[in-house]
Write a structure and sequence with these properties.
Number of strands: 23
Helix content: 25-40%
Organism: Polypterus senegalus (Senegal bichir)
Subcellular location: Mitochondrion outer membrane
Pfam families: DnaJ, DnaJ-like_C11_C, DNAJC11_beta-barrel
Radius of gyration: 33 Å
Largest sheet: 17 strands, mixed, barrel
Structural class: alpha+beta
Function: Required for mitochondrial inner membrane organization. Seems to function through its association with the MICOS complex and the mitochondrial outer membrane sorting assembly machinery (SAM) complex.
Distance between the termini: 26 Å
Number of helices: 11
GO biological process, one term: cristae formation
Strand content: 35-45%
Shape: elongated
Length: about 550
């Protein structure tokens, strides 16, 4: 009931709690509770102006809760996303009588569209930092040939290449976007950079075009064009051509990709590339809720290969994924396996072990932080050494477990506590307002409670003498904590009907997580502790 507000934050928009019904309540149960509360809070039953105003407010809240829960579609949306789901624009065009899964997909689609509209109005930076590490000295130094080489005992680990790239998008008009990007690369002491400017224009709802200009000290000036076009609702084509100017002359290039939806979760791609590395490629990509599968076949100069990869998606809050792939061609064979996991709200950490002939063994660590990517390929050995494979597999797991336990988890817990404390401070005014509303609700119940007590006395029924709800401090080690207890005698007595008190499963507003039934001449004290919060409800009852 509304009287159960305390010093902690309470959600006044918990419609089930407001109507004092369980989440699985039927339409008849909703209607019965709604009628009962309307009789209790009807403004015409109160003459005092202040009580009349409070009764009108509570009456409107009850009416709003019933309107949402009595409509099957609104109730399904509310059950999944709460009140914020009802506030999302676009539900009015959604077909009614959809399942919860379909409603969830529609909500996510509307959210994506809203985010896309928001992104069109601001800059969208993207960046990548890649640092290549040569750690072959850790394993190759144990070879017999290596022992004869001068240079000592401690293994040498060095950075042999680095790449940094960054791009930003600036919407010029509703149809035009400018994209500025640049990159710097260095490998074994030699390096250079490039800068590119692209102008993209949306020509229609079916396509867009892009013109690109670039310059750099590695390949010379660049002029390119790119066109995207939806041929049918299930098929699209992308064509990109470019002219690279260098000291050796002009090198043209052309790439065309044709893609088609084979079914709801499967895409097929055909790619043809002509230029310095001409090739034809076909691939099939299937992406579902629990897995991601890719098959690719390429015929070209100088590389031809076949690739097969599979990724399993765990349905947990950390978005854990396990992946593996096999790639074989003229260059040799490479087997990769790894995992990735969400470590914070905007960060995903992944590690992949690559074992190949003649490439050797490598460990690739990748961190995605919002729109920034940090990539660290570590080359361990040029040979297929079991020890290198073992350490490349076990070391990242042990390192992640230690980091998660000692750094990540304590940091997230501290951050969560800080956010809760900040939320409590920001909501102090709202809590005080809700507390006043609960006290007004108790005053509105006084007349009804008096009649209920008279009826229970006449039938020798159930009368609640005292009832408290909150956090009781019983441990001597926690005497410094302040007990947070409120008197809920009047609201509970108001719930008594036919000498029975039934508390439905709801939030703390309705003394949630407790479903006792107190029958005639039955006394119950201190029952049902809420887990890990020492929250109890103590009742004292009497039978006249």
């Amino acid at each position: 009931m509304a009287a159960a507000f305390g010093d902690e934050e309470i959600d006044n928009d918990d419609y089930y709690s407001l109507l004092n019904v369980r989440r699985e309540a039927t339409q008849d149960e909703l209607k019965a509770s709604y009628r009962r509360l309307c009789m209790l809070y009807h403004p015409d039953k109160h003459r005092d102006p202040e009580l009349k105003h409070q009764a009108e407010r509570l009456f409107n809240l009850v009416h709003q809760a019933y309107e949402v829960l009595s409509d099957p579609q609104s109730r399904a949306i509310y059950d999944i996303y709460g009140k914020r789901g009802l506030e999302v624009e676009g539900w009015e065009v959604v077909e009614r009588k959809r399942t919860p899964a379909e409603i969830r997909e529609e909500f996510e689609r509307l959210q994506r569209e809203r985010e896309e509209r928001r992104l069109q109005q601001r800059t969208n930076p993207k960046g990548t930092i890649s640092v290549g590490v040569d750690a072959t000295d850790l394993f190759d130094r144990y070879d017999e040939e290596y022992e004869d080489m001068p240079g000592g005992g401690f293994p040498q680990i060095e950075i042999n290449r680095m790449h940094i790239s960054q791009s930003i998008e600036a919407p010029l008009t509703s149809r035009d976007t400018a994209i500025l990007s640049g990159s710097l690369s260095t490998q074994n002491g030699n390096g250079g950079g490039t800068i590119n400017l692209a102008l993209r224009r949306v020509t229609s709802s079916k396509g867009w075009g892009e013109v690109e200009l670039g310059a750099g000290d590695l390949h010379g000036p660049l002029f390119g064009m790119k066109i995207f076009r939806n041929l049918t609702p299930r098929c699209f084509v992308t064509t990109q051509c470019g002219l690279q100017f260098s000291s050796r002359g002009i090198r043209p290039g052309l790439t065309t990709v044709l893609a088609r939806h084979l079914d709801k979760n499967t895409m097929g791609y055909l790619q043809w590339r002509w230029g310095t590395q001409s090739a034809m490629n076909t691939s099939i990509v299937r992406d579902t809720k629990t897995s991601h599968f890719t098959f690719a076949l390429q015929l070209g100069i100088p590389h031809s290969f076949m690739m097969l990869s599979y990724q399993y998606k765990f349905q947990d809050e950390d978005q854990t994924r396990l992946k593996g792939s096999v790639k074989t061609g003229f260059f040799g064979t490479v087997v990769e396996y790894g995992a990735e996991r969400k470590i914070s709200q905007h960060s995903i950490l992944g590690a992949t072990v690559s074992v190949g002939v003649p490439q050797g063994v490598s460990l690739k660590i990748k961190l995605n932080r919002a729109s920034q990517t940090y990539f660290f390929p570590i080359h361990l050995t040029d040979q297929l050494l079991p020890s290198a494979v073992f350490y490349a597999t076990v070391a990242p797991i042990l390192f992640y477990l230690a980091m998660h336990r000692l750094i990540i988890k304590p940091y997230l817990n501290a951050q969560k506590e800080h956010e809760l404390e900040k939320q409590r401070e920001n909501s102090a005014t709202d809590i005080a307002k809700k507390k006043q509303e609960s006290e007004a609700a108790v005053r509105l119940m006084q007349e009804s409670v008096r009649r209920i007590i008279e009826a229970e006395e006449a039938r020798m029924g159930l009368i609640i003498v005292n009832a408290w709800y909150g956090k009781f401090v019983t441990d001597n080690s926690k005497k410094h904590e302040r007990a947070k207890v409120i008197d809920v005698t009047v609201p509970l007595q108001c719930l008594v009907k036919d000498s029975k008190l039934i508390l439905t499963e709801a939030s703390k507003v309705s003394l949630g997580s407790m479903t006792p039934v107190l029958e005639r001449k039955r006394v119950s004290k201190c029952f049902t502790s809420l887990e890990e919060s020492y929250t109890r409800c103590c009742l004292e009852t009497q039978s006249p």
